[in-house]
From TrEMBL:
The chain crosses the membrane at residues 7-25, 45-68. Keywords: Membrane, Transmembrane, Transmembrane helix. This is DUF2905 domain-containing protein. Coiled coil: none annotated. The lineage of its organism: Bacteria, Bacillati, Bacillota, Bacilli, Bacillales.
Amino acid sequence: MNNMPKILIFAGAALIIVGLLWSFLGRFIHLGRLPGDIVIDKGNVKFYFPIVTCILISVILSLISYIVRWFMK
């Protein structure tokens, strides 16, 4: 039970940092429109699959998870 406040504080701080970075860097990095994302536009049907964006988010979340586990030791 002693780790729960630490986890909540870290999660809150991480969300604040991500929100600030997203608002400032969102102008330069268009998450969801990265090179490698698949877009098929045929007539009035548009298929969009952001594969590179998914990989990037997965890597970032894995790093955050690793850092959290490292701090909890």
